[in-house]
Design a protein that fits this description.
The chain is of the alpha+beta class and 149 residues long. The chain has six helices and four strands. Helix 1 packs antiparallel against helix 2.
Length: 149
């Protein structure tokens, strides 16, 4: 086979340091900024959203970029950008880790709708409950004391 054929849908989730509810005022601008980073890395953004203290990114992972490189760029560049927005963001940081989950191509629209409805979803569940549910559904073993760094 002479070609490398790849199509990996990835759902990425990460939160602000200590889950500080600080991004709501700039979230639309932030989501656009994150989309630009994805585009620059040839990781086509499909849907970006979140709520107050966390971000969801659904994208196609480029065959040229590792997941860790994408996350490093997303978090470092957006953190620097956020700090320029206002003095209240001068001490802004993202949490140390992240969650990344593969998405079946047939489930992409379901994930898009889920990300689109974050505000409504979080009237019922906290980010912590949401993230722990992802870990459970994907059968990921973890030590909770390290999840929230």
């Amino acid at each position: 086979m002479g070609q490398s054929l790849v199509k990996n849908y990835i759902h990425i989730i990460f939160s602000t340091k200590n889950r500080e509810p600080i991004i709501e005022a700039i979230q639309e601008e932030l989501f656009s900024y994150l989309a630009g980073i994805c585009k620059n890395m040839e990781c086509n953004p499909i849907k970006i959203g979140g709520y107050k203290n966390h971000v969801h990114i659904l994208c196609l992972l480029s065959k040229k970029i590792t997941l860790v490189k994408l996350l490093e760029s997303l978090k470092s560049h957006s953190s620097k950008w956020i700090k320029t927005k206002d003095i209240q963001y001068s001490n802004f940081y993202w949490q140390n880790g992240y969650g990344s989950f593969s998405v079946n191509p047939r489930e992409v629209e379901t994930v898009v709708q889920y990300i689109s409805n974050q505000k409504e979803y979080h009237r019922i569940k906290s980010f912590k409950e949401e993230f722990l549910l992802f870990l459970k559904n994907y059968e990921i073993e973890f030590d909770e004391k390290y999840v929230w760094d």
